[in-house]
Amino acid sequence: MVAGGVIIRVRRGGAADDPEERHQTYAIAPRPRMTVLDALTAIQSELDPSLGFRYSCRVGMCGTCALRVNGRPRWACRTLIEGLGESVTLEPLVNFPVLRDLAVDMTPFLDKMSRARAWAEPTEAAASAPVELSPDSRQRVRIDPHIECITCGICYSACGMAAHDPDFLGPAALNRAYTLVCDSRDAAGGERLAEVADEHGIWRCHSQFNCTEACPKGISPATAIQALKRRAAASGAKSFVASIIGGLAPGG
Amino acid sequence: MAFQSGPSASSPPARPSFWDISAWRAMYPGMWAWVIQRLSAVVLLVLFPFHVVNPYIAWLRAVVLALVILHGMHGLKVILTDFGFPARHQRKLLWVLTAFGVAVFFWLGYLRKAYWGFF
pLDDT tens-digit profile of B30-54? Predict the structure, then answer.
């Protein structure tokens, strides 16, 4: 081993075309301010061109390089080697199928975005002309802390319930649904709320808060899910009361 | 060379085994609180009948009360976050409630002599 060097232990395999899981170790000499991503590119260019991992922007904007560093999901590009110890274990995110070594298939995660209708469906007014939401309006204040998600999948990897229930929509999709449910410019609010309020949606969240702890953008998907739960409960209570009143009304 | 296509839809998501210690390192305090609350419920289910049959076993009394307080404090945390306590501050809430639970346990032990000199 290089003096002052670091051992990088990478989990490989586990993919459909390379099922045998194994750990491979590489010794590197870290440079000052070297990130995990720098270490991986150094390994790939100097030691082992067959190592598979994925990245794009290198500066914490795209979320492509998410993996597990010493067990915890993090971005490779924003995690310094310094301070991680003499041996650093790198593994792919959990709750995703492995494509190759450290690169995972995001398809199931993105499919859940679709299931949560993670796109704006503007009201007629919003579709025909820009509608302003004042920065200090209640809606804006509710939505703002939840809009910075870059769908890196870290919250989904950290989530214990996503591991337990493969159909669970997961923190990112529900966080996105919340920003739309809160927005008066969106026409699908009620329907979207009804769609995410089932056993594989908000009610599957057991308040473990791993998503909030792990999110590198400082978003708290758990806050969004709790707020959706309150909205769903209020809407359920309203329709229950309405059905009783309807039943009592003459001819009801 | 053509790019290889992704895995088939049937390819299972990666999930570490129960015995994989590295996976447990990914747990944050909120998750531990959740696990401890579930485990305390299971242990209480076993111990509580013994306490009902003979409430004068000092150590059992202390253990049952400790577990009830632990379970209750964590339950309170979930209820508070359900009703609007911001989840991003849940870790602080966890420490405050845990400290409060420990204080209640020793208050009952020392000042109320609830465990008949077990300590």
Answer: 889 999 999 999 999 999 999 999 9
Q: Is residue B81 domain-resident?
A: yes
Asked if B102 is an interface residue toward chain A (Cβ–Cβ < 8 A), one would say no
Angstroms from B77 CA to nearest CA on chain A: 10
Superfamily of domain A107-244: Alpha-helical ferredoxin (1.10.1060.10)
pLDDT of residue B19: 74
Q: Is residue B86 part of a domain?
A: yes
Q: Is B25 helix (H, G, I), strand (E, B) or coil?
A: coil
Per DSSP, helices labelled H in chain B are 21-24, 29-53, 58-82, 90-106
Q: Is the ipTM of this complex over 0.85?
A: no
Q: Identify whether B83 is part of a domain.
A: yes
pLDDT at A189: 84
Q: Among candidates A148, A190, A141, which has minimal Cα distance to A172?
A: A148
Report CB contact under 8 Å: B26, A220.
no
Query: Would you say residue B98 lies in a domain?
Result: yes
- Quick one: fold of A6-104? Ubiquitin-like (UB roll) (3.10.20)
Question: Could you say which residues of chain B have pLDDT below 50?
Answer: 1-10
Q: What is the mean pLDDT of residues A211-224?
A: 96
The whole-number pLDDT of residue A66 equals 98
Of A15, A96, A212, nearest to B90 by CB-CB distance is A212
Range of the domain at B99: 34-111
**Domain map (residue ranges) of chain A:** 6-104, 107-244
**Six-digit token string for B71:** 């379970």
Dihedral of alpha carbons A129, A130, A133, A139, sign: positive
Instruction: Among A141, A146, A213, A219, pick the best mutation site for testing chain B contact (most B Cβ within 10 A).
Output: A213
Residues 6 or more apart in contact with residue A110 via CB below 8 angstroms: A151
